[in-house]
Every structure is written in C-alpha cells, then in structure tokens.
Amino acid sequence: MTEISSMVISHKKAKVEEMESAWHGDLDGMLHNLYNHEYVYECVVLKTCNRVEIYVVSPKSSSVLFSFAKEMGASTHIIDFYGHDESLEHLLRLSGGLESMIVGEDQILGQIKDLYAYSKKAGTTGKILDTAFEKAIQVGKRIRNETRINKGSVSIGSAAVDLAEDIFGGLTGKSVLVIGAGEIGVLVAKALAEKDIQAIYIANRTFKKAEEIAYELGGHAVKLDEIKEYLPGADVVISGTGAPHYILTRKIIEEAVMGRERKLLLIDIANPRDIEESVVELENVELCNIDNLRVISEKTLKMRKEEAKKAEEIIQEEIRLLNLQYKRQKADRLISELYKQVYDVRIREREKAVNRLSAYHTIGEIETEVLDDLTHSIVNKILAEPTKVLRQAAELGNEEFLDVVSRAFCLDKEREKIDKVKPGCTKEQTTVKEQAQVK
C-alpha cells in the first residue's frame, strides 16, 4: 500500500554539527534527487536550524529512506524513521510547536508553510502529502488560537535574549550587536527592543534591510564589513545569518577583546555556525550556541507543558479527522471512476435512443432534453445507495469490500487509463511510477 513515511533528524538526538553534516546541497537538489527515485511518488523536505525531515509517499518507503540516509552519510543513531500513522502524528505535533526545542514557538509553523509551498511549486507533492500538510498547517493555527502554548519566550530569537539576560543578570545598560536581519535576526531584535538596553546595532549583508529594522526598533544599522569596529564596544553579540562560512573568526574576536576587562558574550544561533568555536579559549569571551538554548525558566516551561496537554488533545482529535479524510478519499476515487463508467454508458445509450426515435419522427430539443434528464436521473438514483455504502465502508476501513467492488466493476482497469504525466513528458513516456501515484 502506498502511504507516507518519514525520516527525522532533530535536536532531540542530534547535535548542531551532526545536523549540519547531514545536509548536502540545496533544497531543490535534494527534492529532485528524492523525486527522481523510481519508487518515490511524492516528497517534501523540511530544513530548519533544528531539524532535517524528509516525507515520502512510496510503496517501498523503508528501503528508500534507509538508502537515502546512507547516501546522506548520516548515522542511524540520530535518525527516527516513521511509518504512516507516526509520520502524520509527528507532522501535526511539529506544526503545533510540540516538537520544537522551545515548546510552542511560532517560527516552525511559518517554516512548514514555506517549505511545503516550495515542494508543491517544484511539483513533488500530490494528493496524499497535500492532504497531510494542509491539515498540519490548519492544526498549527488552531493550537495557537485555542491554547496559550505560544505565549512568552517561544522563539529561538527570544530565547537567545533570555539566555543573555540570565548570564548577565539583566541587560540594563548593555550594548548589543545583532548580526543577520533574516527571520531569526528580526525576532532577536524585537525581543531586545523590549529590554532596557543602552544600544542595539543591526548588521546585515543587505544594508537597506538593516536600516529598515534599526529604524523600526530605534537601533543603529551597521554594514556587515564594518562589524569589527563595533565589536569592542559590544557586551553581547547574537549572530544568526545564513552564511556558509564563519562571520566571526577567532582572529576577529581576538582583536576585538584585546586589552578588554569585561566579558563579551557571543550567542551563535546560526546553522551552519557563524562563530568559530575556538573563541572560547580567549579570555573574557563566552560562547553559547543553539544547544545552550535548551535551558529555559521552570515557570515558563511548566505553563507550556500545561498548554501542551490541550494541544495534544487537539492533535488526537485532528488525527482522527485526517484518517477519516484519507479513507473517504479512497472511496471517492472509486466512486468517481464508477460514476464515469456508468455515465459513459448513459451517454451512449441515450444517443442510441435518440437515433432510433429519429428514424420514426423528428426529435426536437425538448424531447432530447427529456431523454437526457431521464437517463441522468436514473443513473444518479441507481448510484446513490452504492455511493453511501462505499463511503461507509471506507470510513470503517473495510479495504476488502472496496477491493471487491473495484474488481466487480473493473474499476482497476479504468484506473490504469488515468495517467499522471509530469511536465515535459508525453503520455507514452509516463512510467509505472506515475500510474501508481494515482492509485
């Protein structure tokens, strides 16, 4: 049976370096590498700073995912492999913020929406994954509307600011440099704006973006190639760019703290990392990364855990609805094929009747319309009860009954005629993979 399977590498089992090493190439390349596999009919890849997740629809999901994990060079001890039911539950938990390092964080929902949209645009999704991801996005919104799971410090950005506060015992009068004006950088800057700090400096490769955020938050924009000038005066540096190389090397930091007596706190929330790890060897320098953000206040954690229980109840309710939706889809495919088959017969027989009557006298528009309405009504009335029975069987999970109906009406043969042709392919070039995807 063709269902969803997934492999998950996340902060729960993997360190930052392990997640970094598990990712090779760009998103587009990974998606198409997966989709080009003979037995992968649909796929979606999720990549964030805390996880790499792959969802596939395949009749040979286990071997496909194990093979891909081997190709990635990722150790199996950091990977979770999930079957259909587990994959659905994990995806809904993920969208609800229950699988995040910071429980309830909002950023993950936006990331799921964006990465799913990317896969959909790339043409690697179909009915099965579309149903799952659309449900996940809806559930993520519902959880945030009906619970308080996203209240307080729930993003990596705000958690980084909280960590800096804990280390310094408050940020009053401190000078903070934020490197990176992407989504995480904006979250950091907004969290800082609520604190009584002396100055916020926003550095970014695109200076205009840094200016926009600095203006909005009452900070100062800095060109990325000028950050060396601002490091000596900074108390805290929070870096979260998308650069593939170090933004702050040991040499840069060493020069910045030369002759300095007060602490310089560096928080690296980028993946891959922005700050060279060996800076910890320097005097008066403290380096924290994503792994340090696991530590959050007990009070906030307790509140989130209580709200997470409500979220779990919502997820279980929505899982039942999602499974019901999948079962109905199976029946709907059969029903659609059955109606098409019978309607084809209706049209042929109606035409025969019109032709026979025309041999005796002129058949006008009214007579033709009456015959059309009559045959249409007969077909709908005959199929009304079978339609109801098929849907009930699907909801009860009676696969055997659906298979019997399919064989009795030769619907499998009808299904074989439905070809899913990829862009740029002719009908003749359609493979077994595309035909099976429709099934």
From TrEMBL:
<feature type="binding site">
    <location>
        <begin position="105"/>
        <end position="107"/>
    </location>
    <ligand>
        <name>substrate</name>
    </ligand>
</feature>
<dbReference type="InterPro" id="IPR006151">
    <property type="entry name" value="Shikm_DH/Glu-tRNA_Rdtase"/>
</dbReference>
<feature type="domain" description="Glutamyl-tRNA reductase N-terminal">
    <location>
        <begin position="9"/>
        <end position="147"/>
    </location>
</feature>
<dbReference type="InterPro" id="IPR036453">
    <property type="entry name" value="GluRdtase_dimer_dom_sf"/>
</dbReference>
<dbReference type="GO" id="GO:0019353">
    <property type="term" value="P:protoporphyrinogen IX biosynthetic process from glutamate"/>
</dbReference>
<feature type="binding site">
    <location>
        <begin position="48"/>
        <end position="51"/>
    </location>
    <ligand>
        <name>substrate</name>
    </ligand>
</feature>
<keyword id="KW-0521">NADP</keyword>
<dbReference type="Pfam" id="PF05201">
    <property type="entry name" value="GlutR_N"/>
</dbReference>
<dbReference type="InterPro" id="IPR015896">
    <property type="entry name" value="4pyrrol_synth_GluRdtase_dimer"/>
</dbReference>
<keyword id="KW-0560">Oxidoreductase</keyword>
<dbReference type="InterPro" id="IPR015895">
    <property type="entry name" value="4pyrrol_synth_GluRdtase_N"/>
</dbReference>
<feature type="active site" description="Nucleophile">
    <location>
        <position position="49"/>
    </location>
</feature>
<dbReference type="InterPro" id="IPR036291">
    <property type="entry name" value="NAD(P)-bd_dom_sf"/>
</dbReference>
<protein>
    <recommendedName>
        <fullName>Glutamyl-tRNA reductase</fullName>
        <ecNumber>1.2.1.70</ecNumber>
    </recommendedName>
</protein>
<feature type="binding site">
    <location>
        <begin position="180"/>
        <end position="185"/>
    </location>
    <ligand>
        <name>NADP(+)</name>
    </ligand>
</feature>
<dbReference type="InterPro" id="IPR036343">
    <property type="entry name" value="GluRdtase_N_sf"/>
</dbReference>
<feature type="binding site">
    <location>
        <position position="100"/>
    </location>
    <ligand>
        <name>substrate</name>
    </ligand>
</feature>
<comment type="function">
    <text>Catalyzes the NADPH-dependent reduction of glutamyl-tRNA(Glu) to glutamate 1-semialdehyde (GSA).</text>
</comment>
<dbReference type="Pfam" id="PF01488">
    <property type="entry name" value="Shikimate_DH"/>
</dbReference>
<dbReference type="Pfam" id="PF00745">
    <property type="entry name" value="GlutR_dimer"/>
</dbReference>
<dbReference type="GO" id="GO:0008883">
    <property type="term" value="F:glutamyl-tRNA reductase activity"/>
</dbReference>
<feature type="domain" description="Tetrapyrrole biosynthesis glutamyl-tRNA reductase dimerisation">
    <location>
        <begin position="310"/>
        <end position="411"/>
    </location>
</feature>
<feature type="domain" description="Quinate/shikimate 5-dehydrogenase/glutamyl-tRNA reductase">
    <location>
        <begin position="162"/>
        <end position="295"/>
    </location>
</feature>
<keyword id="KW-0627">Porphyrin biosynthesis</keyword>
<feature type="binding site">
    <location>
        <position position="111"/>
    </location>
    <ligand>
        <name>substrate</name>
    </ligand>
</feature>
<dbReference type="InterPro" id="IPR018214">
    <property type="entry name" value="GluRdtase_CS"/>
</dbReference>
<dbReference type="GO" id="GO:0050661">
    <property type="term" value="F:NADP binding"/>
</dbReference>
<feature type="site" description="Important for activity">
    <location>
        <position position="90"/>
    </location>
</feature>
<comment type="subunit">
    <text>Homodimer.</text>
</comment>
<comment type="pathway">
    <text>Porphyrin-containing compound metabolism; protoporphyrin-IX biosynthesis; 5-aminolevulinate from L-glutamyl-tRNA(Glu): step 1/2.</text>
</comment>
<comment type="similarity">
    <text>Belongs to the glutamyl-tRNA reductase family.</text>
</comment>
<dbReference type="InterPro" id="IPR000343">
    <property type="entry name" value="4pyrrol_synth_GluRdtase"/>
</dbReference>
